[in-house]
Design a protein that fits this description.
Layout lengths: L5 H5 L2 H23 L3 E6 L16 H16 L4 E4 L9 H11 L3 E9 L7 E7 L18 H5 L11 H17 L5 E7 L11 E9 L7 H22 L6
Parallel strand pairs: 1-2, 1-3, 3-6, 4-5
Antiparallel strand pairs: 4-6
Helix pairs in contact: 3-7, 6-7
Length: 248
């Protein structure tokens, strides 16, 4: 067997071709890997015995939010890891919803809901971030002002989101701006209120309420599917717009 000198080896046609291929596709592979870096958790509101708006109607809020979350996931999953807190008609405790996002160490969490007629329209959206004035006591102190043993060991569950409030507020503002620039919505607002599904989320998180449930009206499936497609496209684009400010 003839020993090949190192420099001669790297000059062989097969190796030269391979190195050229890696030189060309290497940046593309690295770009694809970085594009997959974001972990997004979508939380379809309600579920199980909790139907949400339109209880007893043909298409209640729990079905609406799941269908919307699935459509958004399809639009994002080619570039990002997208997980749903529920994929079926099951009931979940608020703490369990946030726990999914915490366990996955997600980059953002979006809880999906819909408003109910007559207090809404199909072309309105509201983005909420968690803001609870009752939790303004300095973190890590008891009512007497002394650190508690449980606070020292780990954060209280209902105070986790407060630590991310500024990031969540920025996320809400970015989503509002992007949704407002789309052709899907005529009005998009932002509001800070206490939100049980988000208060335990240890990451930037918002609740988005889009569209309108009409309990007294018969469901036109074709129209509804078209509306959901429009909402999903606008929300997927808005999430993409917000990611650069959240993912290192």
């Amino acid at each position: 067997m003839v020993a090949i000198k190192p420099l001669s080896f790297f000059r062989t046609p097969v190796v030269v071709t391979l190195l050229g291929f890696l030189f060309l596709v290497g940046p593309l592979l690295l770009s694809a890997r970085s594009a997959q870096a974001a972990v997004i958790v979508l939380d379809p509101g309600h579920g199980g015995s909790d139907s949400g708006a339109g209880r007893g109607s043909e298409f209640a809020e729990k079905q609406y939010t799941l269908a919307l979350a699935q459509k958004i996931a399809v639009l994002l999953e080619a570039r990002h890891r997208v997980e749903l807190t529920r994929t079926a008609d099951v009931q979940m405790a608020p703490a369990d919803r946030a726990a999914v996002a915490n366990h996955l160490r997600a980059d953002l969490m979006i809880s999906l809901h819909a408003a109910v007629a007559p207090y809404c329209s199909d072309r309105t959206a509201t983005v909420y971030y968690h803001n609870d004035e009752r939790l303004r006591i300095p973190f890590g102190t008891s009512s007497q002002g002394m650190p508690t043993e449980s606070d020292v060991d780990r954060p209280a569950w209902n105070q986790l989101q407060i630590q991310h409030q500024h990031h969540s507020q920025d996320l809400a503002a970015t989503l509002k701006r992007s949704l407002g620039e789309s052709d899907t919505f005529d009005s998009v607002t932002v509001s800070g209120v206490p939100l049980a599904p988000l208060m335990g989320a240890d990451l930037p998180a918002v609740l988005v309420e889009v569209g309108c449930i009409h309990p007294a009206a018969a469901t036109n499936r074709q129209t509804l599917e078209q509306q959901l497609d429009g909402y999903a496209a606008s929300l997927a684009h808005a999430i993409e717009t917000a990611l650069p400010g959240l993912v290192p």
